[in-house]
Amino acid sequence: MPVPPALARNPERIAATAISVLNSVFGLPAFRGAQEEIVRHVTQGGNCLVLMPTGGGKSLCYQLPSLLREGCGIVISPLIALMRDQVAGLLDAGVKAAVLNSTLSLEEASAVEARLLAGDLDLLYIAPERLLTPRCLGLLARARLALFAIDEAHCVSQWGHDFRPEYIGLSVIAERFPDVPRIALTATADDLTRREIVDRLGLAGAPSFVASFDRPNIRYEIVEKQNAPAQVKAFIAERHSGDAGIVYCLSRAKVEDTADALTKAGVEALPYHAGLDASLRARNQDRFINEDGVVIVATIAFGMGIDKPDVRFVAHLDLPKSIEAYYQETGRAGRDGKPSSAWMAYGLSDIVQQRRMIDESNGSEAFKRVSIGKLEALVGLAETTNCRRTRLLGYFGEALQATQCGNCDNCLSPPLVRDGKVFAQKLLSCAYRTGQRFGAMHLIDVLIGRMTERVKQFGHDKLSVFGIGRELNEKQWRAVLRQLVAMGHLKPDTEAFGALKLTESARGVLKGETGVMLREQPAGTRIRASRTKSRRGDLAPAATDAGDPALLGILRAWRSQTARQRGVPAYVVLHDSTIDGIAASRPTTLTRLRDIPGIGDKKLEHYGDELIALVNAAP
Ligand code: ADP
Ligand code: ZN
After folding, report:
1. In angstroms, what is the span from residue 385 Cα to ligand 2's centroid?
2. Three-state SS for 443?
3. Average pLDDT along the chain, 619 residues, taken 10 residues at a time
4. 567 CB neighbour count, 10 Å cutoff
5. Among the bound ligands, the one closest to the CA of 414
């Protein structure tokens, strides 16, 4: 299969061979985006940096050149679970792949080393700390190498969120093996990280391939938090029944409660947080990865290195810390490109809670200022009445072609916006007249004119603002309040917990100089997953082209059983999109089956007859 060295500089020949290997080994008809250019560049011996979002298809960028070039491709990856699953997938496609990491016994490791030296491996996955040992470097020096792929390359960045000290040592690769091409890959795009990678991995002068960070198959939705467990239950029941998903909560207690509530509602939900026994945690993670349709309820400790392609939704019951964190977490949905949801329920108390966490942290003043800025950007995203995707990508410095993505809640069911100047003025005056010492609840009590103990205690019923806001109900006032915080006219006080203070910009609103447009809040309080009824074209479950449901069920059951027997995740056997393709086109011959994306030569050989028998036997 390797391109003979004499032809390695012939781009046309490489392109033709690349397509044929893409098809025969991976069962895929075409490259996606920049993959083809990257594969050609690396196969010709070039170094490069690849920035692609999660699910963008980074693996092929080094797997294919490893098959096309002479020698073995060395993949450096920090995550053992990920290596294991990737290797299982490759073996299934007939690629000679192996791992070298701490999970191997001495004998197993020697066997892998012998195969490497004998030229019997296409791809070898190595943990960075292992690679850096003199023994391993010596071994690599004696082997024929196709390339080095440094996956999760942002781990070299000391300022980044996933810094791994062992990655620093990887600069040795460029020094010791200057003639072997290096390809660094990451889904973290910011400029500083990019420069650090180039610096440390010796990639100066090498091209960067930057893909769009848009994830068009993910539907973004942010709803007002009322009763989060009930809302997430309704969201799953209405839109993602039977699907695999991740539900993020901030605290361990909330993880437990939510997992319980979902289990009682008949959802296969498992908890995951740092307080659980390590073996139970590992078991829950394995079940989530290996079984179909498991929901994991987790703190943010969960997710790094989870490569499951068919996560259909990511739900946040609490506000993350920043847009970066939100985008990374929601990005775990829909790696396979199929319709998926990123759903979040958020309320004023989230802002107050996050603010308190920042204030109480022992970070420096500069750190706190940066953190507050990041939180404000996220609140802005949550309260925007415009396209969420445009706002998200804009935050990362990328402009969307259109200003409307057509696949977020605000695009699908545009919120009504009205002039809210008078409401804003009433609320701001109320905060001002009560001394800027009270939280949302009390301010709303005063506006609505409720005679509570507190109102009596402070004599707030005597104020001119008492009862001036009866035209809105409590829920509507909360929405006004949140939006004023998001706009920066009000802010939670850092000293008095929960108290809301006016900012400099509030003056303009009170004087009538600054206009305030507010999202219209319906008066009802019925709990629904989405803010609107599921009509065609708005927030109904995203349509898929999946075929006959009966056959789909049969195929999924077969896949679960096959995966269990072989001890691999279900998606290693066949991806969801491949299962859907079979159910939709019902192939009755091997030739027709081979046309379905995801069925390469080896899969056809292993599973072809069984699959056709299932199709023929299905009603
Ligand atoms: P990343 O490592 O960038 O997160 P992966 O390499 O795991 O992404 O690929 C994500 C998904 O996209 C996988 O399910 C993979 O099979 C699929 N994929 C990658 N390239 C293609 C392609 N050219 N055509 C169809 N599917 C692809
Ligand atoms: Zn949109």
Report:
1. 10
2. helix
3. 55 88 94 93 96 89 96 92 88 95 92 97 96 96 97 81 84 96 87 86 94 92 92 96 95 94 96 92 91 91 78 95 88 92 93 85 81 87 93 85 89 90 95 93 95 94 95 91 89 76 93 90 48 39 60 90 88 89 91 92 93 89
4. 9
5. 2
